[in-house]
Structures are given as structure tokens and as C-alpha cells.
Amino acid sequence: CALGISCHENTEVYTPNHAEVAENDGTITRTFAEPDNAKELKGTPSENLKAILETVGPGIITSLGSMNITEGEYNEIKAFTDELVAGKTTQTEKYKTIFNWVYKSLTFNDFSNPAWYNMGNDPYEVFTNRVAVCQGYSNLMTVMCHSQGIPTMVVNGLVYASAWNIDLGHAWAYTYPDSTWIVSDPTNNGYWKMSDIKSYTHLKPQQVEFELYRDNSIVCEYSNFAVNIKEVLQGDDSYTLPYSAMGFVINSFNPTVELPENITEIYVGQNITSLGTDDNMKLFNNGKHLQAMYVDKNNPTLMDNKGIVYKKNGNSPQLYYIPGGMTFIELLPMEIVDKNTIYSHMSVEEIYFPEGTKRLENYAIENCPKLKRIYVPADAVVAKEAIYNVPNEGEIERGTP
């Protein structure tokens, strides 16, 4: 791997247990992963990441990840760091020297100086300018530690700001000098042993860049405070999402790369409670061939109807995800169909809004190039631009298909 740290490889093959669920008419059998003895991450974000890192170890840190740095820039930072830590004999001594230098030598970019407006957080730019926000502090410290063979990774998440009683976006690092995990916040001059969990409860890690787990079927990461399936490598046409990996329950399915083309149906067990946040659902772009997703009836937060996923919300399920390969979309009744309810769906040809639908707002359906026909109740009001950027504006029919 890049810059000399050996790759983490997990060769364990995960084979999920299954529970067969038959439809009432007996014609369809769906298979969902059964609960196993995996650990449910129910602690604070810091407690959860601690449990994960104690299991997977520093081997997940395979490189500098997506850090934007050239070989020449890296070598220049390394040469400087070599001199900085000269005479230090242990990784812990080198780490503390690097940490203190970063904290004392950088100025936090509060954008009060016009000259700072366009300064970025790439490690070499921070090394040169000595000005950065928390991301830049953490990036530079990570590169400097890496240059000394100390496994280090940037973590993004939230920090509790007691002055305002709110959580703010923040970046810091997890470092592994002399076989001890250290939680490092160089922006705020704080570092603690990861085992001393009560010392850094104000930090809430949300995202780790590196893979936690890989077998012949899936790749997992820590994202949005959960163990997330970031990639499906292969699977049957009707694919059952696994219940766990590396001994932890998988709670999220938000793939960062496109799913295999052959997978047209996905079965979601009771463990998967998230498909990504509302503003970061990568499945929207990476599930173009999916024609249906079915959810275990025991799932506490999600449900499906006609292969479409909803969030459970009492008697008013909230539309969550429409598979990208669907050609016919039949939605549950919703009184008001708001803007962008169905947006940039590249496959849909027909949409059915059943009885109970009262109004389609402007831009309710937008940018659906194959859409031919929309069915709405006879008494539903359709705003003038409810169907926008659709060839021939889509044919509207009153009633059922």
C-alpha cells in the first residue's frame, strides 16, 4: 500500500443465517438474516468506536487514505519531522513531540484575516501556511506521525461545545504509538488514552475512512455512527444483507460504489435501521439496477410496501427509498406529495398515487426521462408544475392502473 504501511486483510468469510418468511398468499418466500450472537453497538459514539478498534486493531490503517498529498510534499514533511523528533527513542515520545509542535505552531483559521479566506486544509498547505481549521490540524499531524511509522487516522464527527450547549462538526485523530490507542485533538490541545473513555466524552466520532472488514461478499466501514456496508462485492440476484461482521451488528446499508448489476432485489433484516441520512443516501446513485427492497417485519425503524422502503412513523409511514431500477412505482397514500418526492429516477415509466392522495405540489415529480404515465385519484389537485422536466410532461390519468 501507499507510503509503506502494510494492508489490512480479513480473510474470514461470513455466511449469514436465514429465516424464511412466506407471504400470506403463499406464493413468495423472502429470506432475511437472522439475529446472531453479534454485539449491538448501544454505547456512546466514542464507546462504540473504541470497541471496534479494540477488535480490528491498527491494521485497518493501510495508507494515508484519500489525503491530498504528493510524494514530494510528503518527503518534505517527513524530512522536517525527522529533525523534529531526532533523539526521541520511542514512538510515544515522537508522537508527543509531533502533537505539541502541531498545537503550538498552527494558528486556528477563524477567517478574521482576509488572507486566510482561501487557505485549505491539505497537509502540505497547512505545513506551509501554518493556518488551518481542525481538519487541517488533524491532517498534518496524521502525515507527520505516519512519516515516523506511527499508525494514525483522521476521524470526523461532533464535539460538544459547552459554551453554546450544542454539538459542532469537528475533526481529530486516533493514533497508535507503542501499541496504545491515543485519542488526539491537536486543535484543542487534548489527548487521552482511548481506554480512558470518561476523559473525552465530548467527542463523538461519526466517520472513519478506512475499511473495518472485508470478505468475499461485503466491505464494511464505520459511518454515520454505525457499522455500514459500504460495498457489496458479489451476491445472488435476490441478495440478503448479512446481520453482522467482525462480531458486531451491521446497522447501516449505504453503499459508496455501485451494486453488482445482477442484484435486483435486496432483503433487509431487522438489524439494518439506516440507508444513509436524508442528505447522504449513496444508495440513490449506486442502486440503479435495484427493482425492489423488502424489509423484515421485525425491523424497528423501516418497513416496505410494494418493494419501496419507508420509515415507520406510527400510522403515517414516511417515504424513504425508491429502488432505482423500478419501472412501476406504487406509493402508499399521502395527502400532500411534496417537491422532489420522486426526483431523477432514471427507470420509472409509470407512477400510481392511490386514493387518499389529495394534492401534488409543484416539482413533486422531476427529471424522470422515461416517465410515460401518472395515475392520480379523481379528486386530487395537480399543481401546474407538479411534473417537471419530464418528456411530454407525462400523461396524467385519473383512477387506478
Quickly list its features.
401 residues, four-stranded mixed sheet, 31 strands, disordered N terminus
Write up this protein:
α3 packs antiparallel against α5 (134-146) and α4 (123-129) packs across α5. β20 (308-311) and β21 form a beta hairpin. Mean pLDDT is 91; it is low at 1-19. The protein is elongated and about 80 Å long. With 401 residues, it is an alpha/beta fold. It has a 5-stranded antiparallel beta sheet with strand order 8-7-6-5-9. A 4-stranded mixed beta sheet has the order 10-11-12-16, with helices on one face. It has a 4-stranded parallel beta sheet with strand order 22-25-28-31, with no helix packed on it. It has helices at residues 45-56, 71-84, 91-105, 123-129, 134-146, 283-286, and strands at residues 18-22, 29-33, 107-108, 131-132, 152-161, 166-175, 182-185, 190-193, 203-208, 213-214, 218-223, 226-232, 238-240, 244-245, 248-249, 252-253, 265-268, 292-295, 302-305, 308-311, 318-321, 328-330, 336-337, 342-343, 350-352, 359-360, 365-366, 373-376, 381-382, 387-388, 395-398.
Blueprint of the fold:
Elements: E1 18-22, E2 29-33, H1 45-56, H2 71-84, H3 91-105, E3 107-108, H4 123-129, E4 131-132, H5 134-146, E5 152-161, E6 166-175, E7 182-185, E8 190-193, E9 203-208, E10 213-214, E11 218-223, E12 226-232, E13 238-240, E14 244-245, E15 248-249, E16 252-253, E17 265-268, H6 283-286, E18 292-295, E19 302-305, E20 308-311, E21 318-321, E22 328-330, E23 336-337, E24 342-343, E25 350-352, E26 359-360, E27 365-366, E28 373-376, E29 381-382, E30 387-388, E31 395-398
Parallel strand pairs: 3-4, 12-16, 13-17, 17-18, 22-25, 23-26, 24-27, 25-28, 26-29, 27-30, 28-31
Antiparallel strand pairs: 1-2, 5-6, 5-9, 6-7, 7-8, 10-11, 11-12, 14-15, 19-20, 20-21
Helix pairs in contact: 3-5, 4-5
